[in-house]
Structures are given as structure tokens and as C-alpha cells.
Batch of 2 targets.
Target 1
Amino acid sequence: MTDAKSSYRQIIKSTSIFGSVQIFTIIISLIKSKVIAIVIGPAGIGLIGLFNTAINLVGSFTNAGLETSGVKAISTVSHDTTLLAREVSIVNRLVWISGFLGLITLMIFSPLLSQFTFGNTDHTLSFILLSATLLFKQLTSGSIIVLQGLRKLKYLAKANIYGNLFGLLIAVPLYYFFGIDGIIPSIVLSSLLSMTIAFLYKQKVRIETVKLTNKEVFTEGKQLILLGFSLSIIGLLTTLSSYLLQVFISNYSTVTEVGFYTAGFTILNAYVGVIFTAMATDYYPRLAKVCSDTILVRKLVKEQSEIGVLLLTPVIVLFLAFAPTVIRLLYSEEFLPIVPLVCWGILGMVIKAVSWSMGYILIAKGDSKIFVKTSIAFNSVFLIVNILGYYYFGLEGLGITFLMNYIIHFLVLKIIVSKRYDFAFDNEFYKLFGYCSGICIITFLCLSIEFVLLKYILLSILILISLCFSWIQLNRRLHFKDFISRNNK
């Protein structure tokens, strides 16, 4: 088997494992979303969105970016049991410290967050109660860091599946019986269960415990902290820009509009973006291992981009063809106003697949300065452009500006990685990227055809073309027959 074929198969294998997990997660989210949509409606979803974004805002500041820098650190020393034991001990200690920091910070700033988010201090107690989730989430991250860094994919998959399943079993009765009053206990208990399950799976990996002083932790973990702090700033900026946008929408319009935005954003990033989550689990540790070799980095990023584009193209075409039906299925009839937002935004996903793959080069290289600078620029543009888009064109304007942001992100990252790391795609990739983008754009244009029969005939043809094209291209790289037979042995 050639190295290229082996690499493509590793990407597909890890993507299929976590793709299955994410599909299961989507089903759980679907059930939860349906219950929330029916019981508490768009306003309830808007309220949940505001709470979660505010929590994530504080978490982005206090979590020190350990969920990313920790994976890099552990994957780098995974071959040496002695170094691995020390690195895991350092990560564990830092996770506890940052978790308590998040809890205390959210408690202190609860009145301010309530005032800024809702215009009054009525939700101060809610934020105080939610502060525990920052500790639980950070401890969950500590377990996930170890499993992902060591590429224990099956344990990681099971931790995700059971965490989401038990979270659903807790959330649904709370929303059903208590309505909006069930939001706070649902968020807290779900995060507690996720933490417990992730910890149990981490315990299955036998790693020697090393006793370290606080001085040793901060001395030896200095690089991890510096990179993590840079990443936490980036996470903070991303969450802050999203939070400010939601606050603007809430103040300019209503909480219901925030609910529509949250639902649309969830579809793009959680449901369609499932492929990114599935791929990142194994992609980042692999890229971190070869980050010093320019040729291997080019190869891996190209392969990852190709697989991402080929997997996403039929998903985008199918979604565009059946957007209203999908939204009714995921939420309810009330949420149909988000159709234009999602249709414009989903066009950018094929572009995001490529920029997302390139973006990991900066993290794998540990180039925190350039990463922070670009993130400040990207998030500033994101916030300004999206506010203008919503102000002038409403929800559809947000979809258009999402697409614009994806294009800007791709072009700027392409220039950076080209000049800084001598990275480039070959002509073969650009042809593939052009074909897939073209199929998605034509599908989008077909939506405006008024003659219904003609529209759905063309959409059916495009669905068939996208599925056949992706299948043929993937088969060229993987030889599915051999791949399936090998995995069945």
C-alpha cells in the first residue's frame, strides 16, 4: 500500500469513527432541539444561546487554551512513557487550576454579565449556579486531552456518545416539566455527567502518576501555558465576537431573533460542521507530529482538504435542496425564517474545509504571535460585517456575511501559510476544489427557479452528480473494496 493511500485511509477511518459519533450526537441534539423548540420556543433557544455564550466567554479567558496545547504536548511525547507521565501530570494540574479560576471568575462577574446580557441583574443567581459548569467542562477537557493526544479514538468516541446520551436523558425531563426554569439545572447536570464519563474512560489508559511541585508544573509547562494562553485569547475573541453579535441582535430586535441566529449558527457549525469535528480529532495530533517537515505538512494538509471537500459537497447539495424540510425536522415551522441565512452560510462550508485544514498549520507550528494577530483581525471583521449584514438585511444578511467571512478567511490564510511556511496546493487540488465549489454554487442558483418541476428536476440531477463525483474521487484515493475488506478482517 502506498503512503498516500495509507494516509487517506487513516483520515477516512478516523473520520468514520467520529462521524458516527457526531451523527449520534446530532440525533441527540435533534431530540433535544425539538423538545426545546416545542416546549419553550425560539425565545427559549435564544435564552440558552445567551447563557452558553456568556459562559463560554469567561471559559475562553480562563481555560488557558489547554484543550489544544495539551493535545500537542502529549502527542509529541507519546512515544516516551517517562516524558508522557510527566506531561499528563502537568496537564492534569493545570486543568484543575484553570477550572477553579473559571468558576471563581464567573461567580465574581455574575452581576455584570447579567446586566450586560439581559439589561438587568435578575439573572445573577443563574450565572452563579452556572459557574460550576466551567470547572466541570475544564476537567472534561483534561480527560479528552489525554485520550486525543494518545489517539485513543475508541475511548474518545465512547466518552462522547455516553456523555451526550446521558445529557439528553437529564435535559429532556427538565425542559418538559419545568420549561424555561429547567435551563440552568440542565446545563449544570449535563456538564457534570460529561465530566464523569470522560474521566472514567481516561482511567482506562494506564499512565504512571508523577508527583510534581507547583514550581515544576509551571517551569516545565511554560511552553504549554504560553501556547495555550495565546489560544485562549483566540477562543476568547471568537466567543466575544459571537456574544456581542447576539447582544446586538437582542437589543436591536428581540430574544426570538437571537433564537433564530442561534438555530442557524448551530446548523452550520454543529450539524453541517460535524465533519470538521470528526476530522480534527485525529488530524491535529498527526499534523503536530510532522510539523517540522514542510513536505509532510503539505501532503497531510492537502489530503485532509481533499477529503473534507469531497465529504462536504454532497452534504451541502442535499441540504440546499431540502433546507425547509431539514429545518422543520431539526426545529419546527416557527424556524423557517432562518432558511435564507443557512442557505447562504452553507455555501461557505466547502471553502471553510480548506481554510480550516490550513489554519491548523499555525497551531501545529506553535506560531502563537501570528495566530493571535490573524484571529484579532478575523474576529473584528466577523463582528463588524455581521452587524452590518443583520442591520441592513436581517437574517439573510447574516447568511451572506457568513459566506463573505469564509472567503476572507481562506484568502488571508492562504497568503500567510504560503509566505511563512512555504505551503502551497498543487493544480490537481485546485481543479477538485473548483469542481466541488461549482456544483454547490449551481445548486444554490437553482433554488431561485420559480418553475417548481424544473427546479426539482435540476436539483435531483445535481444531487446525483455530487454523490457520484465524490464517490469516484474518494474511490480513486481509497479503493473502497480493499479498504472495507481490510477493516472487516
Target 2
Amino acid sequence: MPRAAFPRLCPALLPALLLLGCGESAPPPAPETTLPAAALAAVAQAPGTDRDKLARAIDAAFTREGIGETRALIVLHAGEIDAERYAQGFGRLTPFVGWSMSKTVTAVLIGLLVADGRLRLDDPPPIPRWQRVGDPRGEITLRELLQMRSGLRHKEMADPVYRSGEVRMMFLDGRDDMAGWAEAQPLQHEPGRAFVYSTPDAMILADVVTRVVAPGARAASRQQATAEFLHARLAVPLGMPSLRAEYDAAGTMMGGSMVWATARDWAKFGEFLRHEGSTGGSQIVPRGWIDFMTRPGPRAPDFGAMTWLNRPSGEERDVLFADQGPADLFAAVGHLGQYVLVSPRQKLVVVRLGKTDEADRPALVDALAEIVALYPQG
């Protein structure tokens, strides 16, 4: 049946119809919300995308309901700061704990030692208790630890929480010697067979770093040697003066959770990864090591070596936004919504630091995906 024509008494043209009020006119579109001056001031005058849209996306990360509390956010494009904003009480000199972003830092330290020839990726790490005759843990390789395929019984985020591997290690029976606790756990799977996300695995890697740089040393010397190695081999060349780590009573760096840096220094770390391990024209860690860190492991397509990848997991696990972001994007990701997002094709680094509960994490990820989507891919 043909659609009915406008009544004869109405003008033929829709604009005139609306102006004259003939019939029921559609409501005018809602005006776009005016941006607060502080939101626009957080964005550079000539960013690599639409300035107004970027300011709105940044503002949403601070003001949108249901995504937690954003305390710092930096967008770097082609090495330049396109946007930088802090919540009240936080600023450029504020150090932020990386939580599990610390794991990515630890992986780079391991890469430095592999490049030095002091460790081998497919050899067992130098852990004395695993080297006893007949101990099946002696088959675990450094590669498997980095890809979280150790097979050790480390159940993350267990219920009840006091049974979680990371909680027991950091706050209960393992707190005085965290790596010792992690290394003492039995095998649950054959090494290499299964991906199991594990903060204790990262703590073992931090212990490996310390055993290499301070063999046989006591706790205070272990801590000093590792701190000096972190400073000299990473903080200084990357220009990250705020980079620090916490240590347990045994002098082992808490490399799975407690590395600190300012937002700008976390952004420098992201730039270093984007440039495949180089900064200022100097290759700090081999390009092949960053490629290894950002290449899917054999048991988790969305995880490389202590680094999350923007790819489907094949399971009920969506850490990033594989359905809408570039496939080469990767990230250091930490508890309570810490992110260093790196998109090489877009020449982009996005750092978000704050406090977001697990239930609100998907909404936060959507807000970050909106920022990334503003930049052209290639």
C-alpha cells in the first residue's frame, strides 16, 4: 500500500513544516554537552586526531559512571603527548603502582640477561631446589615461566580469597620469602601443557634475575644488586627516574606486582615497547625479545610473554578489546585497571592509572577502546 502523502494544508517542504508548526514536528536534536575547560585544556592544540572528540573521550574516562576512578591518563601519538590529565590529588610527580604491569617490566629484565648470555630461554632457570635429582620441576624452562605455562600449582583469584596463590604468597604463609613459596609448590600440570595466569610465576622470574645479578648474596645485598640492575639497565636508558620496585624480606624484587613509576614514566615504558626495545636510537633489549613478548604463546592466543595481546582468547576471557581494536595492539595490564596500551600501527601509547573494581572493568575497557579508535590504523 503506498505511503500516505502529507495533508494538503501542510507545506510540501519539511523545513517549512517544522518552522510553521503544521502537524507534530520532531523534537530538535539535543545539543552536544559543552566540554569543561579543564577537559579541553588536557589535550594538545594539534593532536593526531580530532581535538574535540579526543577531549570528550578523555573526559569520559574521568567522569563516566560505572568505570571506577581514573587518576591519570596519558595519550602519546608518534612520541608526542596528545593528552595528559590527572584527578585531583594526583599529578606528574605521583608514583603509581603497576600491579601486574610489573610483570611486563620483569620480562624485559629477563630479556636483558638473555641478551647478555647469562640466561637461556629454553633452559631451566637456576633454582637450586628444582635441580635435585628426580624433581620434575627441573623440566620447567624460562620460556614456560614467561608464558605462564610452568605447570606449578598457582591458582590465581581463588574463592575463598585466602586460598589464592597470589594472596598466600604476598600476605600469608609466603610473605617473608615469596619466591621461595612459589618455587616450593608442586606441579599441577606437565610443564608447558597449560596456560595458567600466575603472579607466583612472575615472582620466580624476579628471583631468577636476582640469582643472576647477585649469586649467593644475603637479603640486603640481593635487594641492592637488583635495584642497581633495574636502575642502570632500564630506568636510566629509558629516562624513567621514578622507576622503583618493592622487595620482600628475602631481598627479592616483587616483580609480579609492586613496580612503581609516574604516569609519564609508564608512558615512556610503552614507547620503549612500541619501538621494539629501543629508545633515543639505542637498542636496549634486542628487537627479537620484544617480538617474543608480543607473540601469542602456544597455549593462550591472547598472551605472549608477560604481556597481553589484543586477540580473541578462545575462552571466556576478554582482557582487551579484540573485537574492535587493531590486532597488533598489546598491553601491560594491572589489577584495579592499570593499563599501558601500545598500538604500533597507530604509533599510539595510552596509559590509564586508577582504581576500578573487576565488575566495572568491561566498561573501562570500552572507554579506553573509544580513545584508541579515534586514531587511524596505519
